[in-house]
Specification:
The chain has 85 residues and is α+β, with helices and mostly antiparallel strands. It has three helices and five strands.
């Protein structure tokens, strides 16, 4: 995963998160093409489970993202005290 930037809507002031994936294409790997600004790797938005389909314009609203992350954590392995640090 490349990044998960946090955005704030200009009108609504609501926060949202978008997950993005960045990787060389098969063609770039096959040709051993150098990655440059003119020939960058491919990127795509990634759906976050519990947030609906990947959407480059809206992302996942912060409350939905926080709930999805909370459900994804196995609290038998990661305690809530450690997660808060």
């Amino acid at each position: 995963m490349r990044s998960a930037p946090i955005w704030q809507g200009p009108r609504t002031k609501e926060y949202s998160v978008r997950a993005q994936y960045l990787a060389q294409t098969l063609e770039q790997m096959r040709n051993a093409s150098p990655l440059t600004l003119a020939a960058p790797p491919a990127e795509d938005d990634v759906s976050i489970p519990g947030c609906g389909p990947a959407n480059a314009t809206t992302g996942c609203l912060w409350d939905s993202f926080a709930q999805a992350i909370e459900h994804a954590i196995d609290h038998r392995i990661v305690s809530r005290e450690l997660a808060a640090d």
